[in-house]
Structures are given as C-alpha cells and as structure tokens.
Design goal:
Blueprint (H helix, E strand, L loop, with lengths): L1 H5 L12 H6 L6 E6 L7 H6 L7 E5 L4 H6 L9 H18 L3 E6 L8 H8 L3 E2 L1 H12 L9
Helix pairs in contact: 5-6
Length: about 150
C-alpha cells in the first residue's frame, strides 16, 4: 500500500499477492503451498504486511539445495537448469506428499518461473508465480479487444 500511494500506476511487488485468490479457488479443507528460495525470509511480519497470515497454507524453502546456493547464498557459479528444475520438482512433490491437502502452489521467488511448468506437470496442481501475476495485471490495464464489444 505504501508504494501504491506514491505512484499512479498499479503496483504488484510479489507473487504472494495471489495467495488469497488461489485459496479462494480451492475446495474446503485444501490449502495453498508456497515454494520460496529461503523459508526464513517469509517471516510472520512479512506475511502480515501482505495480508496472508490467516490464509491456510504451508511454506517450503529451497535453502540447502543448489537453488539456494545460487539464488540466496550466491555461492554456486554454475547454473544447471535441468538440476534446478529437478530440485524444484522434488521439493514440490515432497510438500504435496507431506501435506496432501495442498490444492495450488505459489512460487514466491522470481527465479522460479522457468520451473513452474515442471512443478505443475509433476503435481497436477495450478501453479502461480510472478509471471501469472504480471499477465493478470497486464490484462486488466490493457484489456483485450473483442469484436463488437467497443
């Protein structure tokens, strides 16, 4: 809200803004699974600031993996796309196995969208990320033209 008050354009700063919408799409008893680069970065204070502290969810991080080394610790030098995709898929499947009530997944980290399709194929669940949010906002700002609908 602070940023939005300072500018005259729509502000969307995190894919986590989609968590409430994803939760509303689910059946009773289902929850949203969140994958993040580093679980410790999603503090209670942050979840409260983006108004998702009470949304039924589970959060899994990619710390202690090559993904975490590359994007959080910035220690690894080589980017192995296949291995990163496999690690994302593995963590998503682990989350779903340990929490079978997960009905949708939100990828929090902006480095995760390249692996979203792989996560979706492995889990069979809807997957949201910063690109789905961007496309959603874009479609509202630049509405599609329909013949005869002017």
């Amino acid at each position: 809200t602070e940023l939005a008050n300072c500018v005259s354009v729509p502000v969307f700063t995190s894919s986590l803004m989609q968590v409430p919408m994803a939760a509303q799409m689910l059946r009773a008893g289902q929850i949203v699974g969140i994958l993040t680069a580093d679980r410790s970065s999603l503090t209670d204070e942050l979840l409260s600031k983006i108004h998702i502290e009470h949304v039924p969810k589970v959060i899994y991080g990619m710390e202690n993996t090559l993904f975490g080394q590359i994007f959080v610790e910035q220690g690894a030098k080589e980017l192995d796309e296949g291995l990163l995709g496999a690690l994302m898929e593995e963590r998503a499947l682990q989350m779903c196995a340990e929490h079978p009530q997960v009905g949708a997944i939100v990828l929090e980290c902006t480095n995760m969208p390249p692996y979203g399709k792989r996560v979706q194929k492995a889990t069979g669940l809807p997957v949201f990320d910063i690109t789905t949010l961007t496309e959603y906002v874009y479609s509202a700002v630049c509405h599609r033209h329909f013949e005869g609908g002017e």
